[in-house]
Request: fold
Amino acid sequence: MTKRLRLNEGNRRWWTLGAMCFALFMVMLDNTAVNVALPSIQRDLDATIAGLEWTMNAYTLSFAVLLVTGGRLGDIFGRRTVFLIGVVLFACMSTFIGFSQSDTWLVIGRLLQGVGAALMMPGTLSIISNTFPPEERGKAIGTWAGVSGVALAIGPLIGGFLVEHVSWQSIFFVNVPIAVLCVAVTLFAARDSRDETVERAVDLPGVATITIGLAALVLALVEGNAWGWGSARIIGLLALSVVALTAFVLVERRVRAPVVDFAFFRSPTFLGASLVAFTVTFAMLASFFFVTLYMQNILGYSPLEAGVRSLPTTVLVMLMGPIAGRLVDRIGPRIPLVIGLLLVAVAIFWQSRIDVDTTYGFLVGSFVVLGLGLGFVMSPMSTAAMNAVVREKAGVASGVVTMSRMVGGTFGVAVIGALVTSLGQSKLDDLLPAVPQSVRDRLAEGLGTGAVPSGAPPQVVSATREAFVSALSTGLTVATAVVLVSALCAWALVGRVRRAPGVEPIPQAPAPEAPAVPEHVG
Reply:
């Protein structure tokens, strides 16, 4: 056992990968597991509807807004150092949330938990990129991507189990032992690294402008359906976002150590990978969110039952991620990425054919194809982006790609939700012409969250279900078109080779001839 735990250049990187996957699992799990705990939180804390909404939105907001800054801080001050700060903050806030006595404290905890996730998340990918040489990076990032997909997909399943059999607080308390293990293994195995080409100074004007711009944009997206897309608040937020992000671009062109190096986007591969990250997550999270609502509100499954029935996607993402990573190491990211995106498009189009009488037997095939497709997308996408930049810039590059995913997912849920509400309103007008307009408006507002009224007359319930499913079918068709555009971007922009021209790896110390631990460790 002592020999197996002894570090050397042959096994250190696999222990490091294991630590990064532990951290990633925590972050991605909290993106989805908390959804199923909301009713219990409302009962225990007597939370308001606004408090419940901000339990989700506060985390999304701080996480998405600070990802690029978190990646840049890692490049400047040390990726392992900033990563560990993020892990500790995430674990402390998870404990704080579990002991919250009001929804106000819960929202504050979620906001700071998102800050910890933003410091941690870019580090997982940049540390892996600095630990593994290019010829093994695809396999490592494939494992990383598989863990990410699994955590997102089984979040509702784990959340549902813990809420039903333990308590809603357990969803947060479970993060603490995982974080302790992650910190221990990181200190044990991972080496620190930073960008030696820049001075240790933070671009405060850049951080301020990108934070304001992204915060205004994400807030507008998450509140657009509730506040109304034509409301003064939403228009004001979108205008503030445009002004702040324009100022960010102008600032970054004039500072010596910018938060984001726009030279990254001169690489077609990095640009293509970032566009794919945005578009595929747009469609993926919209599908996850609304198909889960469909299974619960139309097919009548509980959150746990719906989570169990999505396991084909989960298992295949987990299995295909490492396989796709090895394929990227051999033939490059372009072909696997395009094949994966086409499979995702097929799966979501398949889901768009649902109606009120669809059975799980029809849906399960789409879950299988979706798992195959996502397994072939996530690893090549991340590997293509990280291989397109020099290792010194891995932190901020990881932040940019991860931010593209987060903002893309937020866009997807917001846009498809708005589309479902709008189309559903029109359908309700046709189906319920005798019902007062004010009642139809309230019914339409609930469609964006999949709400179907209980205790209403059968005609109203039937019409609401039909309006939701009809609108969702169209929304998923739009998501399919977005994925097809993503596939075109990948084919046109992502390079055929494993590493972009001119991007040479930092020399690695040779591995010993007989490593003490097999390569699959971690």
